[in-house]
Amino acid sequence: MKVFVSSAVVALSLVVPMGAWAQTGGTLDKVKASGVITVAYRDSSIPFSYLGADAQPTGFGWEICGRIVEQVRKATGRADLKVATQSVTSQNRIPLLANGTVDIECGSTTNNSERAKQVSFAINYFYTGTRLLVKSSSPIKSFADLKGRKVVSTTGTTNFQVMRKLNAEKQLGFELISAKDHAESALLVQSDRADAFAMDDILLYGLRASAINPAELAVVGDAVQVEPYAIMLRKDDPAFKQLVDATLTQLMKSGEFETLYKKWFQSPIPPKGINLNAPMSRELQDNLKTLSDKPAL
Questions:
Q1: Could you give the domains of the chain?
Q2: What are the angstrom distances between the C-alpha of 17 and each of 20, 22, 190, 210?
Q3: What is the pLDDT of residue 60?
């Protein structure tokens, strides 16, 4: 996907308040009128959406977003369509989508019922569960080993809620703290300011792979609460959801989705050429057939 950081979105917002688009027209109308689609990316959600060595967004989700942009270009008749990019975090991704600052996010966002009250989700394109990133020398091998330890999870994620609930229900006795993003959470473990980082296992593998010395880190514990990831869209925008779902359906039925999966999860990826060696889960294999957008509870 060719990326153009454009001032058109800013100029447009001076004429029409961003939030007004949700009431006056859908995303395709907004994009057709402005000639710009704003794609949200994450800084460190490896391998879904992250900054590469050239400081530009890349990843599995980002590449799928590129396929969607091409279909938007055709649907709107805007051969001159420009792509603006916007970095988002776990905390601001939903507000920025809802108010029209961004138009789509192809990252590592969990599709669950609570979020579905505010936004819409496309067909699920990944499944993952919460595990722990620790130092390889750590005695922590499971969630039961967390008693008296300090555990970090990223603010605004379902994982933070999962860990708070697990701590209360199982009386594990750990201190739960938060960090602003995944990179900061991992840094707290690497600098011994936290004993473990609780997050989706695939993101932990990505962060481990991108570390200066990957061998110093380990992903441990059985996965808790397997949930789906999905592309995030504005709520009550059926035309745009139909386009995004149709693009995903074509990718999944043609075999191109599996090719992209192997590229990003089972082959060397930038910036360090490390292979995550993450086979496709049974849940995802099943969803390539059922094409479900069913949320987690």
A1: 8-125+230-290 (3.40.190.10), 129-227 (3.40.190.10)
A2: 5, 10, 43, 39
A3: 98
Question: pTM of this prediction?
Answer: 0.81
For residue 14, the number of C-alpha atoms closer than 13 Å in the C-beta half-sphere is 4
What are 73's two structure tokens?
A: 């270009």
Instruction: Give DSSP secondary structure letters for the chain.
Output: ------SHHHHHHHHS-GGGHHHH--HHHHHHHHSEEEEEE-SEETTTEEE-TTSSEESHHHHHHHHHHHHHHHHHT-TT-EEEEEE--TTTHHHHHHTTS-SEE-SS-B-BTTGGGTEEE-S--EEEEEEEEEETT-S--SGGGGTT-EEEEETTSHHHHHHHHHHHHHT---EEEEESSHHHHHHHHHTTS-SEEEEEHHHHHHHHHHSSSGGGEEEEEEEEEEEEE--EEESS-HHHHHHHHHHHHHHHHHTHHHHHHHHHHSSEETTTTEE---PPPHHHHHHHHH---PPB-
Residue-wise pLDDT tens digits, 208-217:
988 889 899 9
Please, what sign has the CA dihedral across residues 23, 27, 32, 37? positive
Computed on alpha carbons and rounded to an integer, the radius of gyration of the chain in Å comes to 19
